[in-house]
Structures are given as structure tokens and as C-alpha cells.
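Sequence and fold
=================
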Amino acid sequence: MKKKLNSLKSLIRLHQHNLDAIRRRLAEEEEDLRQTLSLIEGIDQEILYEKSFAHLSPDFMQAFTRFLQGAKYRRALQDYKRKEIEAQIEITRGLLREALAELKRYELARDKLLKIIEAEELKREQKEMDDVGLRGFFVK
């Protein structure tokens, strides 16, 4: 029983390490998403800023038109990147849920085994106490 318990403890440590790695990966992906959203917001702010000058002269309007084409392209690239990151985050969250469930199964198995070991130890101690009591009874 002790070997099984040690094996379960090793499996739990291994799964906790795996769970930590998945959590780190999720945090990195969420940070990538925050940065991408920040870039998108920056592009939107640039567009608004440049638009505010476009009406001042025909030259500004032409420059704004060229700028807007480039800004829309950059924003589309960032939107595509955002969608990819969001999809990866969902996959990683699924992996996290699976890893948590698996870890929980091993922890429940460990707890069950600990209860069995404890019950066996109590049974053994009770038997020893009964033997001591019987020897004391017959010695008198």
C-alpha cells in the first residue's frame, strides 16, 4: 500500500508540474492578447487623430487617404492575430480543465488510499491491544 501511495504522490507532483506549465502558457497567451488589443486601440487612435486634420486641406485629405489604407491593413493584421490568440487561449483553457480534472482524480485516489491505510493501521493497533488484554487476563 505504501508503494501505491508513493506512486500516487509522484503522479500528483508530475500533474501539478504539468498544470503549472499550462497556467504559465495561458498567462503568456493572455498577455499576448492584451498587447494585441493595445496595438489595435493604438491604430484606432491614430486613425482618429489623423482624421481630425484631414479636413483642413486637400493635401491633408490625400495624405489621410493613403494613411488610412495602411492603417486599415495593419488593423486587419492585428485583428487576425487577435482571433488566432483567442482561439489558442480557448484550446489552452480546455487543456487546463482536463489537467485539473486529471489531477483531482489522482488526489481523490490518494485520499481514498490514505483512508484505507489508516483503517488498516487502526485495525492492527486494535488487534495488538486485544492481544495485550488477553495476555493480561490469562496471566492473572
Remarks:
- The chain has two helices and no strands.
- The helical segments are 2-54, 58-139.
- The mean pLDDT is 92.
